[in-house]
Amino acid sequence: MPRQQTPAQRDTVERVMHEFKHGELKTAHGKRKVRNPKQAIAIALHEAGASQYESTAENKRNLRRTKEKERRGETEGRPEDRKSASSGKGREKTRSELYAEAKKRNIPGRSKMNKQQLADALHG
Question: DSSP readout, 15-83?
């Protein structure tokens, strides 16, 4: 039976599984994408410090390390993004927002542009 997780652990597991779902979760060396759901769960529990295969001290150390990375913005799904998305200040525009603006300005070739190209065409 699984142990009860703290809210911080649940948030971390949720973020890691979100990264996996969107193909952003990488292996330890950061070279390859994680494709196996069981491996993603193991990574999520490890990062959250909720693994039953590690000692309590290791779990605490892992959770502390992960939360420090999240504060520094070194993870894909940063908590700061969620806060700024709700406030609307200082957040980066999504591709669909950039596309809508390009459509208003009638920029040619906009449908084949990626997010960076749209931003360059609008601001450059």
Answer: HHHHHHHTT--B-TTSSSB---HHHHHHHHHHHHT--TTS-HHHHHHHHHHHHHHHHHT-SSS-HHHHH
For the full predicted model, state whether its pTM sits above 0.85: no
Assess contact for 9 and 48: CB atoms under 8 A. Answer: yes
Distance of CA 66 to the CA centre of its chain: 12
Q: How far apart are CA 89 and CA 45, in angstroms?
A: 32
Tokens of 124: 């450059």
Element (H, E) at 116: helix 115-123
Q: What is the pLDDT of residues 7-17, one digit of tens each?
A: 999 999 999 99
Mean pLDDT within 56-80? 82
